[in-house]
Amino acid sequence: MTTIIVRIAAELFGKEEKKSSRTSYSKNQRAVKIHIRKEMKALKSQHKMAGEEERIGLAQFNKDLLGQKCSGKLASSQEEIYQHLAQMYSDPGRELELGECNILLDPPEPEVQFNLSELQLKEVIEVIHKARARSALGPSDTSCKVYKTYPKPLLRLWKILRVFWRKGTIPEQWQVAEGVWIPKEQNSTQLDQFCIISLLCVEANIFFSAISKRLCT
Q1: Is the dihedral of CA 181, 187, 192, 195 positive or negative?
Q2: 180 forms bridges with which residues in the sheet?
């Protein structure tokens, strides 16, 4: 009798599927690196055991996986570098008046006002803990690892950031980025064979990261 009741109820109302109790797992950065090391180790052992023809295929697979080796030293003069940067990143009409624009929209007033209170220590700590400790050094020549490891420099940095926030000024060192030329090809020497990345001060990144987080919350 119970079997008949269950069968009729299933035909009328359908069956409810059981939800999986397993939580989705996403690999963190350390797990991804471990996985890549294992694959590289397996490829290395296969390369040793493979024949001549198979080694060519494995070498091509490694090149496709890791990309072409990039090396070189910039041989351009300082004048050529300044001219290249001026052509790429300068706008000759930046000082010209644009005039009125009739297509601009008037945004509505925000429902929640921006938090204008001074930076809290927990905000700075949260930004520092999420930052990469091995990031390249900027113009201040200070690593984020210093503030992660030692509490006294972190506390002093927080007090300095509060002063900048209170005064509403940005230090000149924070307004300058240090350019690093990265080769795109092997044995690169010319400007078109390099890409440039801009490094800001670690303190500036911490300050603006805390402000940008307030904009999102």
Answers
A1: negative
A2: 197
